[in-house]
């Protein structure tokens, strides 16, 4: 289990985005975000709403974990992970 410090949920335009925990807190240039699979234009949203200068943004579609309990299959929802590189460190 990870720490809950880096999990801040920000809602905008009906699009939840969760900031994932960075490895170090000095000179942060790359951040990881977790959002819904239907999220698009993440770079544009970060630049227009928050004023970040984004150099590039990459996204990955991740499948939710699947677990079996008592013969029944339970699945966590799918999500999209975005890696955003900033022009200047935070």
TrEMBL record:
One of its GO terms (biological process) is mitochondrial translation. One of its GO terms (molecular function) is mRNA binding. It comes from the Eukaryota. One of its GO terms (cellular component) is mitochondrial large ribosomal subunit. The keyword Ribonucleoprotein applies. Keywords: Ribonucleoprotein, Ribosomal protein. InterPro entries: Nucleotide-bd_a/b_plait_sf, Ribosomal_uL23-like, Ribosomal_uL23/eL15/eS24_sf. Signal peptide: none annotated. Belongs to the universal ribosomal protein uL23 family. This is Large ribosomal subunit protein uL23m. It comes from Kalanchoe fedtschenkoi (Lavender scallops).
